[in-house]
Structure formats: structure tokens, C-alpha cells
What we know:
Blueprint: H1 3-36, E1 52-55, E2 61-65, H2 80-90, H3 102-115, H4 125-134, H5 141-157, H6 160-170, H7 180-188, H8 197-204, H9 210-213, H10 219-235, H11 241-248, H12 267-276, H13 283-288, E3 291-295, H14 299-312, E4 318-324, E5 331-335, H15 361-370, E6 377-380, E7 399-402, H16 403-408, H17 412-422, H18 424-433, H19 457-468, E8 472-473, E9 479-483, E10 489-492, H20 493-496, E11 501-502, H21 506-522, E12 536-541, E13 547-554, E14 557-564, H22 575-589
Helix pairs in contact: 2-8, 2-10, 4-5, 4-6, 8-10, 10-11, 14-22, 15-17, 15-18, 15-21
Amino acid sequence: MTRKRRHWIVIAGSAVAIGCVAALAERTLTDALDSVLPDARRISNFNRPGTITLLSTDGQVIQKLGPATREKVEQDKMPLLVEQAFVAAEDRRFYYHNGLDIWGVSRALVTNLRQGSVREGASTITQQLARTVFLSQERTLPRKLKEAALAYKLERQLSKQQILEQYLNYVYLGSGAYGVADAAWVYFSKSPNQLTLPEAALIAGMPPAPSVYSPLVNQKIALERRAIVLKRMQQAGFISAKEADAARNSPLNLKPAIPKYFNSSAPFFTSWVAQQLPNLLTPEQLEVGGLKIHTSLNLAWQKQAQEVIRKYAPGNTEGSMVSIEPSTGEVRVMVGGKNFNASQFNRATQALRSPGSTFKLFPYAAAINAGIKPEDKVVDAKRCWRGYCPKNFGNKYLGSVALADALRYSLNTVAVQLLDKVGFDAVISMANNLGIGTTRPLGKYYPLAIGAYEQTVLDMTAAYAAVANRGIYMKPTPFEEIRGPDDEVIWNHRFEGYKGRRALDSDVADTMNWMLQRVVSSGTGVAASLGDRPVAGKTGTSEGARDLWFIGSIPQLTTAVWFGYDNNRKTSGGSGDAAWAWKQFMTKIQDNFEVQPFPPKPVMNRTFRPPGKTRSKPKNGSEDAAKDQDQTQGPPPRYIAPPGGPPLNENFEPMPFP
């Protein structure tokens, strides 16, 4: 082998070795950088800090909170015209660089030096996407170096098309619009595929300074910027000179709209959700955002309920409706008023209103629990209890009447009589077990029996739902599941939610449901009858018809309706208005439920023991019914009107009497 040949072999071998070392060094450096940089493939799950998406039971978006991209263009559905406009405006060499454009930096530097100001940016679309998703907007050298490294990684992990689509879905385009879909809607009330050339060019010109170039801020500057984009599209060969001239001379034709999902489609419900979220999530979780809240709301039912409240509220009264699934406590409907824009006061959760005769649930349940039977006779007659003299509606009295019929006709004197017979402690304990009076204590006053103590619609609905659930109380909740930024489950109602507790024995609950069915089939609640479908419910009207109630259940759903004035003045309606509205709502949604009966009326073998004595174990051997209760208490106090309560001898709860 000649010396010359050996010389070239050595050179070639050295070159290969140097190349291998260089490649290895580059690979090592790249791997080292990659290990400290975020995975670019996570970009598809990107959410800005503080973003929260509220979803209904069927996955519909109820509202998006925070700086969220409210609508995204699906993969491979981005219009070519829009892509071309942004590439021409922001990164004309997008398809030819690997994340960093050295020629673009040089060109921008020369242009800016000639103009004497910053007129052209040098960041590529890939760099802008990396900055938006993974970095801050601060102008520092370390941030720029990280941006460059991330852009390079993005180019290696994603295709050009994926990078461009993600950028167009996340870039801020002014006026609360994040992404092309949002901008098309905010400025033109269109979807991206409906945008014309001048509209696409206008939107594509905004990224460098969205608050300046927005046509809703300064139309003159927006038009100047649009002209620049059109010129660049022509230079890139995307459009002809004729198309550019026509687009440049076209008017703006703005048609502004509120960003999609900016306003809630169920604002009373979502305001309650916002109040409840801190009970489940930390401040840090709420701040980081990217949360998906799968709520309990049935959006279709919610819309039906809102329509019913607006249509059937008597006169110009306000109204509220709450629906709870008894077996889970999940709130399916919450209407807190006729018009959220007119008043944000939530009458379902914030308004304290007299429950009227709907409160009779508690003295009757306490009486059944104590051993009084539905068939037992009571005397309905004028009577006073230590200075308090309740009256029936129209001063009508039935004399000797079965307990079940007393509830069916909502006789006030009998409700107070039961309170006196079983004792204040028994009735208050029963109410507490059903979630009433736990935060605002109930006093030992005789008007308690017929609704003297104000309650919220939500709490009363939950109490009746527990009875429909055969005595198991479930705390009302608006949540089914909460997922984090990476779609991981943070909280699930089934596994981590309230498990429920026994509030009253199942045979007592079954007896109450049987009695409440008679209220609807042939009593004061007949306006709520659903024909062959069993309904258990109770009407309620406070003094002067200031509050009109109906709370009714089918086995799968409990719904309460309330009407009244915010200033508590008298209405011209009756509880039948609430019962009728309840029926109109249930008629619209009842096909979602199979017709199911309530459990049959049980045989009650309890022996009544007056207050102060412990009742004996029932003969039927029911474990639930065998739980003894100590009802020890002193003699009933003399009636003293509670603060804001009814004066002596006032007909506190006038009920319609058939």
C-alpha cells in the first residue's frame, strides 16, 4: 500500500471518528437537554393557569372559567386559508426550519435597523408555541435559551402540521379570544371555516400585539395590520395580487360576540359550584387550573326547569326549583330565580323562606317514629297551646279524623297537636336528622310545627329526598367527578363523596311516603298528580301566601318548587300554583324514568310512649325500627313568639282546604 493511499485512509478514518464523536456528543447533549425539558407531547392537554371547565352529566360544556381556549379546531380540520395567513404573517419559513430560523432572525434584524424600531419579530411559530405552553412572557436570556431548546424538541416530537394546529388553537388573539376558533366567533360570529380572506388576514395579524391590533380596540391600526398580512400572503404565493387588492379594500364587517361558554348556561347552579369547590380542592389546585368538573347537572332538565319557573310563577313573583336524586344526593336541577342577569341572588341556596306546611313532614315523621299510626284518630278542633292558637284555612275543622287524612288535608291544629304529643325534642331531632336546623337551630315554639323557622329550598328538597330514599339522608352535592390537568381523577363522588346516613327508620319513611302519596292523589297536592305514576309530595303556604311551595318525589327524583316575592310581601296565589308548575316540569322529563312504585305501607307495631319514656322494641323485629330513642324533656314551654315569628293567635299557615 502506497504512502499516499495510507494518508487518505487515515484522513477518512479520522473524519469518520470525528463525525461519530460529534454525533454522539450531539445525541448526548440532546438527551441531557431533553431530560430537563417537558415532554412536548403533553401539549395537547395544555390548559392555562386558572382555567376550569364545568361539564353537565352528558359532557356538554356549561361554562369555561379563566383564560381558556373555549373552542378548538379538531385535528386536520383547520382551514388552509387560515394556516396560510398565519404562516405568511408570523413565520414564512415555517416549513423549512427546525424550530429556529437563523435567516428569519437576520432578516428581522436588518428590517428593524432600517426602520429604527421593532417592526418585525424573529420568533418562529414553534418558538411561540413553546413559550405559550411551557414558559412565561418575560424577556430574559435564560427564557430565550429555554424557548430555543423547547422549539427544537417540539420539532423532533411533533409534525409541522401538529405544531401549526396547536399554535392556532392556543395563540392569544385579543379581546378574550384564545385560538382561531375563539377569534372567529368574537370578531365575526363565525366558525373558522366560514372566514373570508380579509377576515383571516385580520386575525392573523394580531399575535404580535393583540391588545393593540384588535379591531374592537382600534379599527384603523387593525386595517393597517391586515394590509401587511395580505402583502405577505401575496409575496408567499398564497394569493394573487388581484385577491390581495380586493381584500385590502373590503370593509371590516365586524359582528362582535361574547366568547363561547364565557357565560354559564346554568348560572345559579355554577355560582353554587364555585362556592362548593374550595371544600374539595386546595387553593393551589384551583390556581394551577386545567380542571374539568363533571357536575351533577342535567342541562336539558335545567333548561326545562328554567322555562317552567318563568312561565308559571304567579303574577310577577320570583321562583326557584331544585331536583335531587335521592339515592346519591346529586343535584340535577337548580334554578335560583327567573333571570340571573337581573338578580344574581340564588333563591335556592341563599333565600331563607318559611316552609309552611312542607315542614309538617317532621312532626308527622316524629309521631310515626314514636308509635302513632296513620289510622289513629286525632281531633281537629279549635284549641290553644299555652297561648298559641293555630287556625285551619277558612276556620274549617273536621273533628275526629285519621292521622293520614289530617296530613292529606294539611290540618294545622293536628300538626301542633302532634308536636305537643311527641315533644319538641323528638320533632327537632327528626328535622336535624334530615338536615334541617343543623346550622340555624330550631327553637322550642309551637309554630315550629307549621313552618315558623325559615329554610332554604335546597335543604328542604334534601330532607324530602331522604324520605323518598327510605330514610337514608344524602348530603346535596353538585359534583360527580373532578379531573386534573393531565386528565387524572382528583375526586370522585362514588368513592370519596358523602356515603349517606340513616336519618329515620325505613318503615317510618315508607309510612310517610304512603301518606304523602295520598296528599297528591286526593289531597291538597292533587294539582301535581301524574296519573298512574306514583307521586309523594306536600304543599305549603306561609301566612298571607307569602311563600308557595310544593315538594314532590317519584322514587328516582325529588323536586321542590317555590314561588314568592323577595321583599316577602303577600302573593295572590296558592300552593296549587307550585304543585301545577311541578307537574309541568315532571311531565317534560318523566319519560327518562321507569314507572316505579314506592314500597308498600308497612305494618307498624310500635307502642307509643309519651315524652320522657323509652319506647319498646317493635314486635315486627325490624332492626331499623328497633332503635330506641330517649326523648326525655321537661314540660313544653309557654309560647313566646320567636324573633320575626308570628304573633299570638295569628293564622300562621293558611292552607287550601278541599
